[in-house]
Amino acid sequence: MTEPQTPAPQAGRPVVFRGGTVLTMDDAGTVLRDADVLVVGDRIAAVGPALEAPEGAQEVDATDGIVMPGMIDTHRHMWQTAMRGYGADWSLTQYFVWYYLEHGRRFRPEDVAAGNRLAALEALEAGVTTVVDWSHGLQTVDHAEAAVDALQSVPGRYVLAYGNIQAAPWEWTADKAVQAFLERRRTGAGDLLGFQIAFDVTGDPAFPEKAAFEVARELGLPVTTHAGVWGATNDDGIRLMHEHGFATPETVYVHAASLSPDSYHRIAATGGSVSVSTESEQSAGQGYPPTWQVRAHGIPVSLSMDTSVWWSGDLFSAMRATLGADRSREHFEAHLKGDTVTQLALRAQHVVSWATRGGAAALGRDDLGRLTPGAKADVVLVKNDASPASFPLLNPYGHVAFQAQRGDVHTVLVDGRVVKSQHRLVGVDLAAVRREVEATVEHLRADMGEDVWQVGMDPELPSAEVLDNPYQYTDYRSETTHAAREEAFERHLSWER
Ligand SMILES: [Zn+2]
Q1: 1-10, 109-118, 233-242: lowest mean pLDDT where?
Q2: Separation of 428 CA from ligand 1 center, angstroms?
Q3: How far is the CA of 226 from the centre of ligand 1 (A)?
Q4: Is residue 416 within a helix (H) or strand (E), and if so which, with residue range?
Q5: Are strands 273-276 and 301-303 parallel, antiparallel or unpaired?
Q6: Residues near ligand 1 ion, CB 5 Å cutoff
Q7: What is the pTM of this model?
Q8: Which residues on neighbouring strands pair with residue 253, listed in sequence order?
């Protein structure tokens, strides 16, 4: 880095960010210019101009930068990060076949741990200080222990959403060992670790998932569910949840993309929230990214990245993709009616709010997602003096949503602790994590066999025909006839041979 080295951050020392543009994300949406943020212990102590800092406070120069709350991802399958990028060209069907039917069982507890540790570091590095680990690869309690141990080895804030795609939800939630695990690991875990129950509702009229909801209720844990996923979950699931009283304010509906207005009404009326994974919905095909419908129903939104087996793991991408998808749809719908959109409904401020306060609300945490006195000190400084894209800093929300990227994350605090400083993660042995992930990749590759491994990464292309083009053979430059061109093409092919 081009910036001067500062002393390594010391635990327990107050931290003061000096002279930044501060997105407080408070109820009034206050933005302060040339302001300071003071962190004492695990809390925001003060926000404002020229703050007095306690003796020995560590100063962070935030000049020309943006100080904002740590971002919150409400749905990420962290165990899949060990397969980063492998499924870049998958459809949702190919993903289901690969993980649910064919290869998900090959993951050992250490493989889940490897993915989780890498995902946790990736998140922190990108200023994502809270992640819901939608952990549906927990085929045994040993897998779950490994998943939580890995999360707790990286100093971020996590919610383990316990799931298991290898068994029906009413089966694995009935397992006394699973229930005992949840009771044991949540006891004394502190507020850096929370739990949810993660499963999907198929819409079977017998509603067998009822038993799983009951277990979650007994344990006092919220349910998170992939809802409105084209070809997988639909309005029936929402209706059954609602009719049986399991649609609650704590419920997080992931995607909620292929649903009718009736389902959105049921979600809105019961106070639930939707976790939108725009990059995912755009390429996997759960349905059109639903913010344009969800906001019309007054349903709270949070953002998520879903999985790094396909997509990126930072919320700058999520904010940008979500703004683009929402605005595309707004224009598209207007053009169908011959109208022109002259005022955009979704603002940069909205997506920044969804990435921070929206996530906090979905998790029932009003002490996160804002920089206000008393809130938890999860803080991100976006600042990159070496980048020509860092100035002028005119519209701070627009800057975060459209100009900034993960490499611009300069400093990150979680619970008052400096975990990234001067663009570098603090105290992380990335080489060790790399070895761990390489061991997982080697295991999977050997277990699957090289051919199956390669085919999995390179799915077959659909047959595609280029449309007939009526202008194709009209040569406006000469008298060349169609037949003459065909002859020339044949000659060309014979040379190739
Ligand atoms: Zn998902």
Answers
A1: 1-10
A2: 28
A3: 6
A4: none
A5: parallel
A6: 306
A7: 0.93
A8: 225, 274
